[in-house]
Design brief:
The protein is mainly alpha-helical. The chain has helices at about 1-20, 25-40, 60-70, 75-85, 90-100. It starts with a helix and ends with a helix.
């Protein structure tokens, strides 16, 4: 019985995470237009200028990094400024779009 309860709890938690992770990729694409200046329209980045590739990244990682730049936990003055005006919905929407980049 304990095992069943643990599995049910884990699945419920996963459901909450998946629901929370869902953002609006179309809205994210509009916000991404600013990001494209450095990271490229396809998220390929720019090795010469040292702008990292975003295409192919996992949603949890993208979200975590955007929040880390925003809070100052990850230090980069440009990214701190770029994320300063984003709210949680914006970050979810950007994440939803970025994960579509392949």
């Amino acid at each position: 019985m304990k095992k069943t309860t643990a599995i049910a709890a884990a699945l419920a938690l996963l459901g909450v995470c998946v629901a929370h992770a869902a953002g609006d990729a179309a809205a994210g694409q509009k916000k991404y237009s600013v990001c494209a200046g450095c990271h490229g329209p396809t998220g390929a980045g720019n090795e010469v200028l040292k702008y990292p590739k975003l295409a192919g990244l996992e949603a949890a990682y993208v979200r975590e990094q955007l929040r880390a730049y925003q809070s100052g936990a990850r230090v980069n003055a440009t990214m701190k400024a770029m994320t300063a005006g984003l709210n949680d919905k914006d970050i979810d929407n950007l994440t939803a779009y970025i994960v579509t980049l392949k």
